[in-house]
Amino acid sequence: MNDVVARLEQVRNNIASAEDEASRTAGSVTLVAVSKTFEAAAIVPVIEAGQRIFGENRVQEAQGKWPALKEAYPGVELHLIGPLQSNKAKEAVALFDVIETVDREKIAAELAKEIARQGKAPRLYVQVNTGSEAQKAGVDPREAVAFVNRCRDAHGLAIEGLMCIPPIDENPGPHFALLEKLAHEAGLDKLSMGMSGDYELAIAFGATSVRVGSAIFGER
């Protein structure tokens, strides 16, 4: 078996075990396979093994490989999981099915404009900077619920859930717990949290989707 396919199967098995251990419904957690920096040739075996949901960090990189892949493999769903620049909103709305990194007023306004113009509405998540890290994108946790409400009320955006990337040098558990609390306060039930090193823990804290890259595709 191709190594990448074997690793995909292992991740799927680990997710199923984590769901069971957390008394979660089987299949309730969505796997987003993070294919950033990998060429189409490396992604095809994962698609052909049945994976249909993928994550990319950069709009420009995704534009170089995903239009052809989506045409060749109908039903593929593409998530933007990296920071979105306002001048890329047009391209992001056109290409991505889900945008997980709405984090400021300007982005919300640009997305609303492009959604209206293109008649295409990607599902949207608000990214929360749970560690309040200066170098990291995301809304401050203290402002997250109010920002979700502004996205809805001022911009007419349907926010589906929250997303976070905990600080690399901290226990992610409290960050996952904080995101779950904020989602509850905002009336949201989708939580995108957990990556290759901590996705099983994220499932225990209520993740509805996990973003796994290196555990599937190997080190970049």
Mind explaining what this structure looks like?
By secondary structure, the chain is α/β, with parallel strands linked by helices. The protein has nine helices and eight strands. Strands 7-6-5-4-3-2-1-8 form an eight-stranded parallel beta sheet. Helix 4 packs across helix 5 (105-118) and helix 6 runs parallel beside helix 7. The longest helix has 19 residues, at 3-21. The chain is globular. The relative contact order is 0.15. The mean pLDDT is 97.
Write down the overall mean pLDDT.
97
Quote the distance from N terminus to C terminus: 21 Å
Q: Helix amount, in percent? A: 40-55%
Structural class: alpha/beta
What oligomeric assembly is this protein in?
A: single chain
Largest sheet: 8 strands, parallel
Widest β-sheet, arrangement of strands: 7-6-5-4-3-2-1-8
Unreliable stretches covering 5 or more consecutive residues:
none
User: Could you tell me the number of beta strands?
Assistant: 8
> What Rg, in angstroms, do the CA atoms define?
17 Å
Run of helices and strands: HEHEHEHEHEHEHEHEH
Overall form? globular
Counting DSSP H or I runs of 4 or more residues, the number of helices is 9
Strand content: 15-25%
What layout of secondary structure does this protein have?
Elements: H1 3-21, E1 30-34, H2 40-48, E2 53-56, H3 59-72, E3 77-80, H4 89-95, E4 98-102, H5 105-118, E5 123-128, H6 144-153, E6 159-164, H7 173-186, E7 190-192, H8 199-204, E8 209-212, H9 214-217
Parallel strand pairs: 1-2, 1-8, 2-3, 3-4, 4-5, 5-6, 6-7
Helix pairs in contact: 4-5, 6-7
